[in-house]
């Protein structure tokens, strides 16, 4: 059995014997397993991609000229400089570093003068709150040729965001700032206000696909400015929108306050562990949860803020589409919007409820030429996930059910509703 370092060094040695015909390589490196054992490299990777060379001659062999390189797993980027020495990156068109990349790893690339002259697609995982990492990432971004697709999987710092606009603004067609489930709202705050989104629209005039995380707004005219900013992108046709509810969001709605974990210390211990059965949860949970409902009403605020329905998704779609520049001949209409809610999670029973009432909605323009102004709304989930969410929602503790019935009276059978969500839009079109 191999420890992590022994395993990684052996795999690095094998890279010296890559078959010259290999063009695409994906690697996932992980830390020690709970049992402290690892499989041998020969069992984890097919030996057919390696040339049959003696180990002492492998490093002397010319590296394969790769076109696609993906490095994932818990240890992404920690040995990035070593990978660069084993591979020829001059022809790489897609580079995916999807998990956290450490500042030292980016620094090693910069100091080794590793360049990617053919790169067109980049996925990069960095932290927005680490100044050293932000500086190193910005410097790395500026060394790259004009990118067409960029995916920031974990966060975008202020310096990195400026480097993206300056070095790649005119070439980008697809940008993702908030697709990662593991990301937090404060990792995207530098791209989550109307002024910054308008700057993004001004610099990146060719964006057709955008994935971004924004704060959830109450719906007044001032707050809706961020949706107008999204509509100012003339070529934008596909939008993935994540609405976040975090306590540290100064621009967020009062009804969307994030449940502060510090205020809930001990609550998870007083409820049943996640490993117990649903029957045990139902027997132990109601009184404890009702005690929490009575102090502060934070659960009520979270339920209201995280709920999403068809009408709200359509309203967001129409507002962005109507904000499109009418005098720009290059302007294209918005074709598709997927909107979801994130945040406000702290215990398993409330999570099940939020998963159900905040299911992602897809709003798409009808593809028929005679019905281009009609919108089609659907749940952006597979049938398996839908069934799973529904089953979990039916097992909610009685306090949560009582709260839902109180917030939305008349929706006693809300878990049975197949298409329409909860009513979140008033008659004048503003958010409830």
From TrEMBL:
InterPro entries: LRR_dom_sf
SUPFAM superfamilies in the record: RNI-like
UniProt protein name: F-box domain-containing protein
